[in-house]
Amino acid sequence: xxxxxxxxxxxxxxxxxxxxxxxxxxxxxxxxxxxxxxxxxxxxxxxxxxxxxxxxxxxxxxxxxxxxxxxxxxxxxxxxxxxxxxxxxxxxxxxxxxxxxxxxxxxxxxxxxxxxxxxxxxxxxxxxxxxxxxxxxxxxxxxxxxxxxxxxxxxxxxxxxxxxxxxxxxxxxxxxxxxxxx
Length: 182
Hints:
Blueprint: E1 13-15, E2 21-23, E3 32-36, H1 43-53, H2 56-62, E4 65-70, H3 74-79, E5 91-93, H4 98-102, H5 109-118, H6 121-129, E6 146-150, E7 156-161, H7 171-177
Parallel strand pairs: 3-4, 4-5
Antiparallel strand pairs: 1-2, 3-6, 6-7
């Protein structure tokens, strides 16, 4: 079942790549960006994380809390040089995809197949190749990303389900929610 804007965020507890227990409701009282990504080798997801990390200081100073989930295991995420610098925000491997299911984040063959027609797939793959991403043979190829903006009252103010495998909310919206100007 998809999450709707205006409803309370669904709480969960998980372990991040550093072995820390993360409970989403521990961030109540603060703005939260909850991002569901594909896998450790997805060029679109990794390039997006790379762009977000370029604003780490500004984002940290804004007080926003971010939680990133990937369908790859914590071990695979931690083995990636790309994902080792994400702190101070939790990066959670969820290969069981139970948290994905809780938030209605699902695979879609149709959306995956339309990606080359709506995104620069070859460019993203070329850029991501330089990142030396590890392979994840257990990952699906049809999982579609999603983003949720949660306010201080733990209410979902934006529920964005991607239209393709690069279908995250635009970074400008993410930064605006955090109170930053581009």
